[in-house]
C-alpha cells in the first residue's frame, strides 16, 4: 500500500478513490505559474444545440446518512438536453466557484499543483435555460454518475455530446461524497470521505464497510433521482425552490427509455442500480470494478450484480489492462449475464481518461510547463483527441441502439478502423 507521504495518491484504481485526498493534504504543491488562459472542452458532435438547468432535490423522508445534523438528504443534479434557439442564452460554466474550489483541494490528479488552475473559468457547450427541442417527440433519458470525490461536472464532455445527439442527460452529485456541491444561494457542502477514510485506520473490515456505505448511499440517491425523472416526465417541477424550468422540459422526458453510465464508482453504481431498479434499460460502466476490494485485479467481495448477472444490455469500457479477463468482478458479471454485453478497452488509456481530464490536463500541462510524464500518469498515452472521439462515439451508439432502436452504427460487431484506440475484447 502506498503511504500519504509519497507523490502517488492512495488507491488510484478503477474503484473508489478515497485515500487520494488525504495524500493531497499531506503534500506541498510544487511551485508553478498560474495558468492565464481558461481551459476549454471539445465541442459536441451532434446536430442539436445543448441546453441545461440545475435542480435542487430534497428527499423529505430520508435523513442525510453522512451528516446527522441534516434532517433531509439534499442533492444537486444538472439536466442536459437538446435545445433550440439556444444562442440567446448564456453558456453554463463547467463548475461553479464553490465547486471549483472544492475540486481544486480534493481532486485525484497526480502532479497537478493546487491553487494554480482556475477550474471555474471553463465554459461548457450547454446554454443555461434554453428551450427544449421536442420536435422528435419525447426524449430518451441517460443518467450520469461521477467517480468518488469527483463532481458531476467532470463528465461534462460526454454529457453535452449525448445531449447534442438527442438525449436528456441527468448528471448527479452525491452530497458529502463529491469534492464540493454548491446549492442555490451559494452554500457549499464539501466531502466528508477523507475523514471517514481516516476513521477506518486502515482496518480492512472497516474499509469494506465504508465502501459498502458509499455504494448504498449512492444507489439510494440514484433511485430517488429516477423518481424525479418520473416527475419531470409527468409534467411536474421537482426543484425544491420550484424555480422555473426551461420551456418544454416538463413532459419532455420518456420514463420508459432510461439508460445510465458512470466513471469509476459511478460505473459501479450504474450496473448495480440496473440490478436493483428495472427502470434502467441499459447501462455502461467506464472503468469501475464491481467488488468491494482495494485493487482491480483482486478476487472476492463482488457486488450483487456481478453474482446475479444482468439480462438487460450493458457495456464495459476499461483502461489499458482492464477487461473481463483481467478484472475478476467483471469476469463474474460477464459469465453470469445472459443478456447482450460488450467489453472495450481504451488502448493506452488510464482511469481518468473517461472524464474531462482527458481534454483538460494536456492544456494544464502546457500552461504550467509540467512534464509530459505528469499527463501520462493521469490519462495515459492514448492521443486525447482520439480517446474522446471514441468514448463519445461508442456511448452514443450504445444508447442509440438500446434506447432508440438504432443499429449502433455497427460499432459493436467487432473492431472498428475508425477508432484504432479501442480494443474489442472477446
TrEMBL record:
The protein depicted here goes by the name: Hydrolase
Signal peptide residues are 1-34
Say yes or no: keyword RNA-binding present. no
* A GO molecular-function annotation: hydrolase activity
Q: Which domain of life is it from?
A: Bacteria
Listed PROSITE patterns:
TAT
- Entry keywords, A to Z: Hydrolase, Lipid degradation, Lipid metabolism, Signal
The residue stretches assigned to a coiled coil in this entry are: none
Hydrolase recorded as keyword: yes
